[in-house]
Amino acid sequence: MIVSKFGGSSVADDNQIRKVKAILESDERRRIAVVSAPGKRNKEDQKITDLLYKCNSMVQKGQTCRPVFNEISKRFVQIAQKLHIDDVKISEKLDDIRCMIDAGRGADYAASRGEYLSALIISEFLGWEFLDAQDVIVINQDSTVNEATYKKLAEKLDPEKNYVIPGFYGETEQGVLKTFTRGGSDITGSIVARAVNAELYENWTDVSGIYRADPRIVENAEVIPELSYKEVRELSDVGATVFHEEAIAPIYGIGIPIVVKNTNKPEDPGTKIIDADDVKGPCGVSARGGLSRIRLRKLMLFKKYGMRHALLTMLHIFGIRPCYSLFGIDSIVWFFDSKMANDSVCQAMCERLTKEFGLDSITVDHGHAILGIAGGEMDSSDVYLDAAMTLRENGIDTTFVNYGSSDASVLIGIKEEQAAEAVKAVYNKLF
Ligand code: ASP
Q1: Total-model pTM
Q2: What CATH number belongs to 284-430?
């Protein structure tokens, strides 16, 4: 059996949903579809999920979400009408949902309704069973998958039937609706693939696979034909967004192959992701921006046991979870996602750390990026030297280098404003 997940652009309107139907019906091994909420139909358009989050923020501010919700309703009703399915039923559901959002059911409930309605419409259009993710996907507080999920899926899925399942959400053990992080329908697809021990997990999107570099930056960038689970995680960690970095976890060690394919060009081979040894040599380059940097210093900082842990705990109290760390004899540098803390939170954190740990200095600055080169069995020092020379020749400053912490990546700190230029230069050198 094949599990096929369709992303937001693949279900953005009736035309796209017709393509989904043609794809599903062209191979009878495709028996389960996991779907996202309708995404953008063009560059200026809005994703349904973004609109739903907006509705929830309006309610939080004491306003009604009605004006924004009307846009959502219009889109779903239009899709239903164009697919000739029961739009009255969809309108009723939309009314109920708006009332719930206005009543303050919260962000996760609001955001999940995009996938819910999308799956309802698509299941009716295909004549397949609708299986609500809330009844089968159990999500732990830390957003990992609870093992009870697999038992529930095994109980609910009838091998004789075909299903459409909404992605992105489930329920906690306590029965509270919860979403994964953004782009989380990839995780749902992976969970379902594991539950049915699928021969293949297809991930349908609007590009023909995972590129060696973002094609918006590098024109004519090549699609990677095949890469390992490990390499895809390394690449997504540094900003390649085609496949959610947490979606490998449910099938890790089970060996279900994944293929990333293009709904608009189903004949293209796409990228295969396999649970095997890494593909030799560098496979892609990407940059992740939007990072801030904390630099702190104190003489004999590490003389006391447990300092790193104590300092990190303080960062966590201020909502900051660093993604990259560097340690010197008397200093620490941490990089974190700038969205985690605004300037006043950063200032309060610096004051508290200085006071409690008697720091000699601490600064926070913004506008950083990490350039990552992923690949297996690479001679990291050669790759690093090539990349560093190229960056230098192109006038791009580097802030740190890390190779050796993983055997499948080389990471280089750069300024965010030079990230695109850096990706282009390194791509041209390495590929
Ligand atoms: N609709 C959700 C999002 O936009 C989840 C997904 O598409 O995977 O993040």
Answers
A1: 0.90
A2: 3.30.2130.10
Give the pLDDT confidence score for residue 166 in this predicted structure.
98
Please tell me the CATH code under which domain 2-206 is placed.
3.40.1160.10
Mutate to test the pocket of ligand 1, among 182, 188, 236, 241 (most ligand atoms within 8 A of CB): 182
List where CATH 3.30.2130.10 sits in the chain. 284-430
- Residue 403, pLDDT score: 87
Give pLDDT tens digits for 290-332: 999 999 999 999 988 999 999 999 999 999 999 999 999 999 9
pLDDT tens per residue across span 374-388: 998 887 788 999 999
3-class secondary structure per residue, the chain? CEEEEECHHHHCCHHHHHHHHHHHHCCCCEEEEEECCCCCCCCCCCCHHHHHHHHHHHHHCCCCCHHHHHHHHHHHHHHHHHCCCCHHHHHHHHHHHHHHHHCCCCHHHHHHHHHHHHHHHHHHHHCCEECCHHHCCEECCCCCECCHHHHHHHHHCCCCCCEEEECCEEECCCCCEEECCCCCHHHHHHHHHHHCCCCEEEEEECCCCCECCCCCCCCCCCECCEEEHHHHHHHHHCCCCCCCHHHHHHHCCCCCCEEEEECCCCCCCCEEEECCCCCEEEEEEEEEEEEEEEEEECCCHHHCCCHHHHHHHHHHHCCCCCCEEEECCCEEEEEEEHHHCCHHHHHHHHHHHHHHHCCCEEEEEEEEEEEEEEEECCCHHHHHHHHHHHHHHCCCCEEEEEECCCCCEEEEEEEHHHHHHHHHHHHHHHC
Compute, in angstroms, the gap from residue 243 CA to the centroid of ligand 1. 11
How far, in Å, from the CA of 81 to the mean position of ligand 1? 23
